[in-house]
Design a protein that fits this description.
three-stranded antiparallel sheet, alpha+beta, 14 strands
């Protein structure tokens, strides 16, 4: 058992930034290759460590989860340190950002909304919206697939969440607010961000105005739905009628607002990115695309897919799953230590930030033979490695904070993929370099231009 200091980079956050800033994902991958699966990113005054060992990740997320807390330790002014959860800027204290008893209570309240049967009820909506999006395209058209997927999945989540028409003013406000504030979530990790955000600077003013407009829309929808008795099947109605089985209490409007925005962001941003990367991979691997088309043609015979078809579309599911291995929409997760503790055999001090990195683990040759290869058959039949650790693949996190909407996202993604690929094929744009950009989620820098071709 190792009990000394973890190997890795020496120096503080600025020294680490000089190494990692040019290409963060490549830098983290090299850090793991050089120093092992638990490696120091920076030392005091802010200690940070890369964690890329599935067994250690399982302990952090599940086995010893109460010894760790969500968030990232940030240096404030002077020697003061603070903990930030970047997404609270937009989401408040929703399920994705809350912790402790608050999180456990909210999860109890919301779990029934994400039962498999209820998610299947939304399948027809997913397919209809994907088909409507595909109807707008023309053969040979040049499209930014990332923009298309953002629009499509936002329409899906707003329809299932609010039962709102996808062309409404509410959706425009929602889209603008999320776009304006996504980049700022990363800036929130810098010292002094909150003070700067209150100043009358143009960018900060735009973000504030967008958040205020978003709040007005959401609270108006809440008021309208409460007045109507909250008897619908949309997720907002279910949030308003939810009652804690232990206390009988429901949610106040502020909590409903936070959960609405959490579902909205998690339900469209991550799925849009997953689909974007899937189309990129299909465009650069025509033989895999051909196998997918063959399955779709056999099972669907040209018709729209239904939820009942999912059991007969294992290759489509494997394509989507393998795309999330190579390009996980959530590329890394932050936790910090509440106490001095052995982590992966190394003594780490309380207050240390741990980066649990899906990008690195999902591409580790120890768990994935030929890890850079796009190979959906890894997920089929006897090709599945029964000895591979559970947390060698964790696109939805794990433990008490595992994404509550993981089945929602998988169903949404596979049905959208099948709906679109039964009609369209995708070609890369010659000369365009596709570069992953690790913001809060993993987006393609500058979008994903592709040329679409009608199949058949």
């Amino acid at each position: 058992m190792r009990t000394g200091a973890a190997p890795g980079l020496s120096g503080g956050p600025r020294a680490a930034a000089r190494v990692l800033r040019p290409d963060l994902l490549a830098g983290l991958t090299q850090l793991r290759a050089t120093y092992g699966p638990v490696a120091q990113i920076s030392s005091r005054p802010l200690s940070a460590f890369l964690v890329a060992d599935p067994a250690v990740i399982a302990d952090v997320l599940v086995g010893s989860s109460r010894a760790f807390a969500r968030g990232i330790v940030r240096r404030g002014f002077g020697s003061r340190q603070t903990v930030v959860e970047p997404l609270t800027l937009v989401l408040g204290q929703g399920l994705l950002t809350s912790a402790g008893e608050r999180h456990r209570r909210q999860r109890r309240l919301m779990q029934p909304m994400f039962h498999h049967q209820r998610i299947f009820e939304y399948g027809e909506t997913f397919v209809a919206i994907a088909d409507d999006r595909a109807d707008r395209w023309t053969n040979g058209q040049y499209l930014d697939l990332h923009d298309e997927m953002i629009e499509m999945t936002l329409a899906m989540v707003t329809r299932t969440l609010f039962d709102v028409d996808v062309d409404s003013n509410e959706v425009t406000v929602i889209r603008t607010a999320i776009s304006e504030n996504m980049v700022a979530t990363r800036k929130s990790m810098r010292a002094g961000f909150e003070a700067l955000e209150r100043l009358p600077l143009p960018a900060a003013r735009r973000r504030r105005n967008a958040r205020h407009a978003l709040d007005r829309v959401v609270y108006d929808l809440i008021d309208h739905r409460r007045a109507a008795g909250a008897g619908g099947r949309d997720l907002l109605s279910l949030l308003l009628s939810a009652r804690d089985a232990q206390t009988g209490d429901g949610m106040d409007d502020t909590q409903v607002r936070d959960e609405v925005l959490t579902i909205m962001l998690a339900g469209h941003e991550t799925t849009a990115n997953a689909l974007t990367w899937t189309f990129h991979l299909l465009g650069t691997h025509p033989e895999i695309a051909a196998a997918l088309y063959a399955e779709l043609d056999t099972v669907l015979s040209g018709r729209r897919p239904m939820v009942a078809d999912l059991a007969n579309l294992p290759y489509a599911d494997a394509v989507f799953t393998e795309a999330m291995r190579l390009y996980p929409p959530v590329w890394g997760m932050g936790r910090y230590l509440l106490e001095d503790r052995l982590v992966g055999g190394y003594r780490l001090p309380a207050g240390s930030t741990l980066l649990l990195c899906q990008w690195v683990v999902h591409r580790d040759a120890q768990w994935w033979p030929d890890p850079e290869r796009f190979d959906p058959t890894r997920w089929l039949g006897d090709r599945i490695d029964p000895d591979r650790p559970r947390y060698a693949y964790f696109p939805f996190g794990g433990g008490p904070h595992q994404c509550i909407g993981n089945s929602f996202a998988q169903t949404e993604g596979v049905l959208a993929l099948a709906t679109i690929c039964r009609r369209w094929a995708f070609e890369p744009v010659v000369g365009h370099e596709v570069v992953p950009e690790p913001l809060v989620t993993l987006r393609p820098r500058g979008g994903l231009p592709m040329i679409i071709r009608r199949r058949g």
